[in-house]
Amino acid sequence: MGNIVLTETQIQRLQKKLTEGKEGSKMTKQQLFTIATLAYKMWELLDENEELDDWMDSKIAQAEQSVVAVVKAFMYDEVEDSLGGMDKLNYDDLVIGK
Questions:
Q1: CA angle 82-94-73, nearest 5°?
Q2: The total number of structural domains that make up the chain
Q3: In sequence order, which residues have a C-beta less than 8 Å from that of residue 10 and are 6 or more positions away?
Q4: Which of 38, 54, 78, 98 has the greatest number of beta carbons closer than 10 A?
Q5: For the chain, how long is the longest CA-to-CA vector?
Q6: Is 33 part of a structural domain of the chain?
Q7: Residue 69 within any structural domain of the chain
Q8: pLDDT digits (tens, 9 = 90+) for 47-87
Q9: 8-19 vs 25-45: helix axis angle to the nearest 10?
Q10: What is the pTM of this model?
Q11: Residue 59: predicted pLDDT
């Protein structure tokens, strides 16, 4: 899967939406922080040619698919709310994949 590139404005909107009026938003932010921190740490420790067990590769692939699905749904809702529809989205500001 390719890279996901977000503008700073989109990231700020995502952060704001995660914290707006939801009881679970604090837990969500903590969970996202944990995922990001641990993933980055593992990325740093993992050698370029190091191979993981198959079950590890599978779990990482599943986690990536899950996070991408949530981000896409979350961003779709944000676009619907803020712009009035996907047809008004500036695709120059958002690149998902390669």
A1: 60
A2: 1
A3: 75, 93, 94
A4: 78
A5: 46
A6: no
A7: yes
A8: 999 999 999 999 999 999 999 888 888 887 766 666 555 56
A9: 130
A10: 0.56
A11: 96
